[in-house]
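User: Show me sequence and structure for the first protein, then do the same for the second.

Assistant: Starting with the first protein.
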Amino acid sequence: MLKAWSVNYLLSLGTAWVVGMLFSYILNFSWVFKPEQKIQFKSRFLRFFLASAFSIALNMLVLSYIVEHTDFDPFYVQMVLIPLIVVFNFSTAKYWSLRPLS
C-alpha cells in the first residue's frame, strides 16, 4: 500500500496488521502449535488479539519515531523491524496467547 498507492505508512501498517493477525491466528493455532481441539475464537482469540495489539502499537511507535527523527524510508525501516516483531509475536503466542488452557 505504501509503495503502490502512496498510502500513509502507519495506515498501511495498520491495514496489513488486521489481515495478518487473523491469518496468523488461524495458522498458528492450527499448524504451528497443533492443539488437540478445534479453533476456539472465544477462549484464545482475545489473548492473541491483545498480544498482537501490543505488538502493532509498539511497532508503530518505533517506526514512527525512527521515520520522524531521520530521513529513512518507512518501507526500509519496517523491513529492519520485521524480524524483531516476528520473534516477539512467536514468543507471545507460544508462551501466553496460544498456550493450552488450564
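Switching to the second protein now.
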Amino acid sequence: MEFTENEISKIVFESGLQIHKILGPGLLESAYEECLYFDLVNAGLKVEKQKSLPLIYKEIKLDAGYRVDFLIENKVIIEIKSIDALHPIHTAQVLTYLKLSSCKLALLINFNVSLFKDGVKRLVLGAL
C-alpha cells in the first residue's frame, strides 16, 4: 500500500498520542523511539531507524554523521526529543535534514510535554 505524506503524518501523530497517554512525559528519548518504531511497523509502514543522510558538497558525497531518528516510506522524517522545550536549533536541525533528503515533510516530536499536541511541530519544505 502506498501512503501519502499526510497519511503517514496522521498515523505517526495518533501513535505518538497513544504512547504519550500510556507512558506520559519524562522518559528517555530512546524509550519513546522504541515504542513509536514498534507502533509504526505494526501499522504497516516501512520505517528506517537512525537513517544516515549524506552531505553533498561541491558534488562530493560526504558522510558527515547526520542521522534522522526515522525515515518513513522514504517520504517523512521523524525527529524525536524528550527535553524541557523545543528551541529554534531543533527546528533548524530538522530543516537541514529535509534539505539533505528528498523528503518534503518532517515531524519534530517532543514527548516531554504535558499535552502531546503541544510537543509536535510539523515542518514542510516545498509543497506537499
